[in-house]
């Protein structure tokens, strides 16, 4: 990259030298560091004392009378008609378009120099071969193609050589297929391209060989040939455009600000919706008519940063897609007559990004020979963030892929070119739906965006520039935007992500802070992305801007009164279909998932035969994005609906499988309401879960939703899926994989600073004197073996046996206090939702629970005497992990008799990692996701659960033992002890209350207190001794949450 910058730098210097006249009285500032140059072109001497007019003093004048000069300027504010952010091919051509097509003044600002972005790595093909007629970008590509040819012709007309100016070569292009299937597709492509108005020809292997003898051909080889395609040299084209733009500096209409990252947006009155320019560390650059962000792959993060302190959030889903290119200089082993690309290139280019964490490296052969005889071989694609380091392995792969097409390369070693080769690395601005975002940013006046051209920015630059300029100047577009869909939906998409309602949390995508657990190579089914339910393959689609499109939202009601949003899964993998839409509260970051399905049996999915409108929001007096219409599919006999489809039009959706699919009845099960997504005036939107849940249950959670309306007839039923494969554990993680999962997600539990009753291991409890009592023989308790082997096995909780502390007072007090250093947690690993999820139940043992405290009337914390105290307390949290991808979805927190379920996006994590932070309540050891006070009871009064951080904490990942799991776990003997872990407490509530309340409370409130206490969950009261993990229903069942 340094080399590239140097080239651009050289070009800038050369140009400056050409323009500087010997008698020029003015000065130029050229500040250079090893990689940096800044040249400011400023107005003539008339502006010396006020170098650039401030916004208030009007714009630069066209053709100012004073002689042009290059001048040192100390001005912090400069005003132009248009400010372009980004000096890549898109930004520079936009500037050129305004300069040549209007009389507006333009400033280009770049954090580095023009070729430092993707543009500098571009191979330079301006081809139509791999484009699809009628596709969303077709019109723009055709217009651009035409404009590039027009530019080359106009250079010729001026007596200039386009080859010198642009590196232009009209070589024609070949899209080469190597299999009969590819050739069939290429023939079809040739027909389509011809119908699309281009000269196109299919070449048999013999014809191809004649045209391009260096290519290896056999009977199955063929090619699509477009004789009118051309290529250019990105660096020369940039230098040409820069040179042209700078000619307008003489009129005071052009300025460049290089090595000046844009750091802020200027808005009138400090914060209004009108954007007036941008800020860099050195300058305020005002754009009176327009500010255009053309910052390539940085556009998304830049927009986010620029608006982060405002109440507007714009999500531009552009991300970097790294590419390598190999340039072999003065290559003479063979010649290329054409630009060449392998047939699979188009798929490689359009492949959608997987989860944010996956790299997805792909390499596809492209080969061109530039005007100086360099062989240029491409190219790779991968998602590795903003990294631009060259990777030698990838270069080797590019070379080897090329050698599959050009056999001569097989006899040449890449090492032979070590001295005369260059590697270009660039970050393509990738956008999920492949359509660049071009247009005004809704909600922000005078702000425009032109980004997301991925691997086609050089080809589409001139058309994009013309389009942007037409939009800003209010001229009709040359590209038919009405017939094509790419432009409007982009604005729409953008609009959807422009939040005019105080930056709702849902506008931001939830991301785990640390790396996700690795999926170990030997895992057979776990983490493979899809699961076969028996005739129906399902894939879990994590909801993000790239995988889902918001169709509607309301801003009111529900959690924190922020409303909720409905999303439609998009960019589905090939042959997968939607079975429902996804809904989530707006008070959460964008998070969650939905299943999409592929019909493996040929009879598992069918399109609906009709839709019934089950609800609409037209009559709801709430703030919403238009009206939402909820349609339930009517299915063929033998098929069931799984989710609803939501539209913003009252027109029935089309009866296509693509809209939503019904599922064969045998692959479905009964569902019921799960967690609440939104509730408002008698309407509740709920997630759906299988009615039957547990280790043997086959119901599969789909991620879809339904709704319920108070006082109206029940809605038609929606179903969940069913795993018809017999083995529920087959998709679960192996032992080693479970270790990897637990290493990533094992919780950190904080105990309250005042906590004196801490946990211990079971072994420690037994080894330190715990006793086993038998009914009828109470005077003869027996010590328990440290491994629990002498505990009665099996049976039921029949009051025949119980455990208790040692009799010796000191020993008893020691055991009561537990021992954090001698604590481990116990894991029960179980399949959930038909084996599509794995529950890791993390059990924690505390030898003793302290007494309960009440918040009552004016008393903040009223000790309830013995109430709540008990020996042998078991609490747990459950990590619910997807078997599709190993991601943590939810965590269950046990809290006395019930518990709560918290989505992973709402958890607190240990800094920099994915370990959830858990708070254990003072004395009661109930588990909570947040510190603070939670009252259990009525309104302002109830049992206190106090949680806080302290220096007493337990890292569950440090010491654990698996006591239950699908792979033949050797269970310790104590797991099969089903009797009580503590004695029935010898107090009576009424008596107990009386004795302590009498001392402190007046008579008339004692009754009230008794009533409150009677409503306290049984487990807190703790009269009865608790049982161990395996005796609880959750051992094989689902956790109990409200
Ligand atoms: C290996 C490779 C081969 C390719 N081959 C071809 C090809 O043959 N044909 C084709 O059509 N396309 C090709 N492309 C794609 C093409 O290069 C890109 O689509 C195009 O260059 C994108 O141009 P851009 O101006 O949007 O982005 P960039 O060229 O990346 O420019 C963005 C500019 O924004 C600046 N910027 C970023 N943040 C800020 C900030 N905060 N303040 C100020 N400035 C900022 C950057 O410094 C950069 O100069 C190829 C790409 C690669 C990687």
From TrEMBL:
Pfam family, one: Vps62
Annotated signal peptide: none
Ranges where the FAD dependent oxidoreductase domain occurs: 81-470
Annotated InterPro entries: FAD-dep_OxRdtase, FAD/NAD-bd_sf, Vps62
Record-given protein name: FAD dependent oxidoreductase domain-containing protein
Gene name in the database record: A06p047340.1_BraROA
């Amino acid at each position: 990259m340094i080399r590239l910058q140097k080239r651009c730098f050289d070009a800038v210097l050369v140009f400056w030298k050409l323009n500087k006249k010997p008698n020029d009285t003015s000065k130029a500032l050229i500040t250079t560091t090893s990689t940096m140059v800044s040249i400011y072109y400023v107005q003539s001497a008339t502006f010396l004392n006020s170098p650039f007019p401030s916004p208030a003093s009007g714009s630069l004048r066209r053709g100012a009378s004073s002689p042009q000069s290059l001048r040192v300027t100390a001005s912090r504010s400069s005003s132009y008609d248009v400010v372009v952010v980004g000096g890549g091919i898109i930004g520079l051509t936009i500037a050129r378009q305004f300069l040549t097509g209007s009389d507006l003044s333009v400033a280009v600002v770049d954090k580095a120099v023009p070729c430092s972005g993707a543009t500098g790595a571009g191979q330079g093909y301006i081809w139509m071969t791999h484009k699809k007629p009628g596709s969303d970008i077709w019109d723009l590509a055709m217009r651009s193609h035409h404009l590039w040819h027009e530019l080359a012709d106009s250079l010729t007309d001026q007596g200039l050589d386009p080859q010198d100016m642009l590196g232009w070569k009209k070589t024609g292009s070949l899209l080469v297929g190597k299999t009969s299937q590819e050739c069939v597709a290429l023939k079809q492509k040739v027909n389509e391209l011809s119908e699309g108005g281009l000269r196109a020809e299919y070449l048999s292997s013999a014809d191809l060989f004649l045209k391009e003898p260096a290519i290896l051909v056999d009977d199955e080889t063929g090619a699509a040939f477009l004789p009118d395609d051309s290529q250019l040299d990105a660096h020369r084209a940039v230098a040409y455009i820069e040179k042209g733009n700078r000619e307008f500096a003489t009129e005071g209409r052009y300025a460049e600000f290089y090595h000046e990252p844009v750091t802020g947006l200027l808005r009138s009155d400090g914060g209004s919706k009108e954007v007036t320019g941008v800020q860099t560390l050195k300058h305020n650059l005002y754009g009176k008519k327009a500010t255009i962000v053309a910052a390539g792959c940085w556009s998304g993060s830049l927009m986010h940063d620029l608006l982060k302190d405002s109440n507007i959030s714009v999500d531009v889903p552009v991300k970097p897609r790294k590419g390598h290119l190999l340039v072999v200089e003065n290559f003479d082993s063979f010649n290329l007559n054409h630009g060449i690309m392998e047939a699979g290139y188009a798929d490689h280019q359009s492949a959608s990004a997987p989860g944010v964490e996956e790299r997805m490296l792909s390499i596809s052969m492209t080969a061109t020979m530039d005007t100086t005889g360099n062989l240029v071989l491409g190219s790779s694609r991968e998602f590795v963030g903003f990294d631009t380091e060259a990777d030698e392995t990838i270069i080797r792969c590019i070379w080897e892929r090329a050698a599959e097409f050009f056999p001569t390369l097989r006899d040449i070693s890449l090492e032979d070119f070590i001295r005369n080769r260059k590697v270009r690395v660039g970050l393509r601005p990738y956008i999920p739906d492949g359509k660049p975002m071009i247009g005004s940013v809704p909600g922000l006046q005078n702000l425009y965006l032109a980004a997301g051209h991925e691997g086609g920015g050089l080809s589409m630059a001139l058309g994009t520039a013309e389009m942007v300029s037409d939009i800003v100047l209010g001229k009709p577009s040359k590209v038919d935007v009405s017939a094509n869909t790419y432009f409007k939906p982009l604005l729409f998409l953008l609009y959807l992500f422009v939040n005019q309602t105080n930056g709702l949390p849902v506008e931001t995508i939830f991301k785990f802070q640390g790396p996700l657990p690795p999926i170990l190579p030997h895992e057979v089914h776990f983490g493979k992305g899809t699961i076969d339910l028996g005739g129906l393959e399902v894939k879990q689609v994590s909801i993000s801007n790239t995988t889902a499109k918001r169709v509607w939202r309301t801003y009111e009601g529900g959690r924190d009164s922020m409303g909720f949003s409905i999303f439609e899964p998009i960019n589905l993998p090939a042959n997968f279909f939607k079975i429902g839409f996804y809904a989530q509260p707006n008070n959460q970051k964008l998070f969650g998932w939905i299943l999409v399905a592929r019909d493996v049996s040929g009879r598992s999915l069918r399109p609906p035969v009709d839709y019934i409108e089950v609800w609409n929001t037209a009559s709801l007096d709430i703030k919403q994005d238009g009206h939402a219409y909820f349609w339930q599919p009517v299915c063929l006999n033998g098929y069931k609906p799984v989710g609803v489809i939501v539209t913003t039009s009252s027109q029935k959706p089309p009866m296509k499988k693509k809209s939503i699919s019904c599922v064969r009845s045998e692959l479905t099960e009964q569902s019921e309401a799960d967690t609440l997504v939104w509730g408002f005036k008698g309407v509740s939107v709920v997630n759906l879960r299988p009615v039957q849940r547990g280790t043997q249950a086959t119901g599969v959670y789909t991620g879809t939703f339904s709704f319920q309306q108070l006082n109206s007839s029940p809605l038609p039923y929606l179903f969940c899926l069913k795993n018809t494969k017999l083995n529920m554990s087959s998709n679960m993680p192996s032992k080693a994989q479970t270790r990897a999962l637990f290493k990533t997600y094992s919780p950190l539990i904080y105990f309250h600073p005042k906590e004196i009753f801490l946990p211990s291991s079971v072994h420690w409890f037994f080894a330190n004197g715990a006793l086993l009592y038998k009914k009828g023989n109470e005077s003869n308790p027996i010590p328990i073996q440290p491994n629990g082997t002498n505990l009665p096995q099996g049976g039921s909780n029949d009051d025949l046996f119980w455990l208790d502390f040692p009799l010796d007072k000191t020993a008893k007090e020691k055991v009561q206090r537990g021992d954090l250093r001698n604590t481990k947690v116990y894991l029960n690993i179980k399949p959930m939702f038909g084996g599509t999820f794995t529950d890791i139940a993390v059990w924690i043992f505390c030898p003793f629970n302290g007494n309960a405290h009440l918040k009552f009337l004016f008393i903040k914390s009223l000790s309830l005497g013995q109430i709540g105290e008990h020996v042998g307390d078991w609490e747990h949290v459950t990590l619910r992990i997807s078997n599709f991808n190993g991601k943590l979805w939810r965590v269950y927190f046990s809290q006395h008799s019930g518990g709560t379920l918290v989505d992973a996006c709402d958890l607190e994590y240990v800094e920099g990692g994915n370990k959830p932070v858990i708070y254990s309540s003072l004395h009661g050891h109930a588990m909570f996701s947040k510190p603070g006070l939670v009252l259990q009871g009525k309104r302002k009064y109830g049992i206190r659960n106090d949680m806080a951080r302290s220096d007493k904490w337990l890292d569950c990942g440090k010491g654990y033992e698996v006591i239950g799991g699908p792979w033949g776990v050797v269970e310790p003997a104590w797991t099969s002890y089903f009797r009580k872990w503590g004695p029935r407490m010898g107090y009576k509530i009424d008596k107990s209350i009386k004795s302590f309340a009498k001392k402190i409370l007046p008579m008339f409130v004692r009754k009230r207190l008794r009533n409150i206490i009677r409503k306290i969950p049984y487990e807190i009261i703790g009269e009865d001794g608790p049982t161990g993990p395996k005796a609880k229903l959750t051992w094989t069942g689902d956790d109990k949450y409200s």
